[in-house]
Amino acid sequence: MRTAWGLLIAWAGAALWSINLTLVDPAESSPDAFASNNSYWARDLRIMAVVAALAGLLLALRGRRWQVVFGAAATWFGTDMVLDRLDVQGVAAAVGTATAAGLAVAAFAAVAVVARRPPATSGRTPLLVAACVAAATAPVAAATESPTDTEAALTPLSVAVGALLVLAALGCAWSAAPDGRLMRQRLLAVAAAVTVAAGCITVLRLMAPDARLPILLLFGGLLLAAVAVIGGAAAPARAAVVSLTAYPLLAIGAVVAAFVTAPLAELWTTAAGDPPVNAADTDLFTSVLGLVIGPAYALALLALGWTATAHPEQDR
């Protein structure tokens, strides 16, 4: 069950990445010599769709062979830059790239079968980190908006990527927990997380962009709290309370990281053959927010007493 759920998430992430690359991104690209930072928010959604897909693959691999997932990430992002530079676009290109990405995910399915004879090391910690990264990234994806004429295309993609990240976070968190631990509380946390996610994503899309920050921070804190409870943390109540304040505090450091990594965003833009961002704006990776907050929170959960129970071997 876990392998199938992970592969479905991975396939969905690959499809969203393909749609973004070939249909949405070309419409967002600036035809001028210089672009604004808004021009590349579609690129950030693509990165976040890949994050969801990689979390699904890690779930399918039971948290093991995580080095292979890192290799897949490097290959995927490199391919993204090459295809972006080649300016692939259109329905035919969408079908072709989605098919190729689906075949690549199918190749990982073969690795997942091999992973049924796992090594002695537990895969719980990588699954915990993946759950936290997906949970921390979901609000950023759901709130992404570009104030241009292409907003009609970007909005459903933001909703889809945000929702997929929520499913990836819940799946990885559930798989990371020891069997039978606080089952009733975990089931309630799943139901609450799905309800909260649906409500927050809806509210984020209905609110004006400049008024979304409080809901975004609340959404992130509640999702991380759900990950703590569903993942079977040794001190779930304490971890859940800490998460409500941890997300806003870690977001401050994540914003700093976004500006620190601005040269990498500029390098990506150049490698993809896209026009540079004008001097009045900054070329940033908004996806960095989740990639910083997630691992940091996972380390906090470990410090709060994450149990060392061996990872169960059966497919649940």
From TrEMBL:
Keyword field: Membrane, Transmembrane, Transmembrane helix
Keyword Amino-acid biosynthesis: no
Organism of derivation: Dactylosporangium fulvum
Protein name: Integral membrane protein
TM segment ranges: 45-61, 68-86, 92-115, 127-144, 156-175, 187-207, 213-234, 246-265, 285-306
UniProt KW Membrane keyword: yes
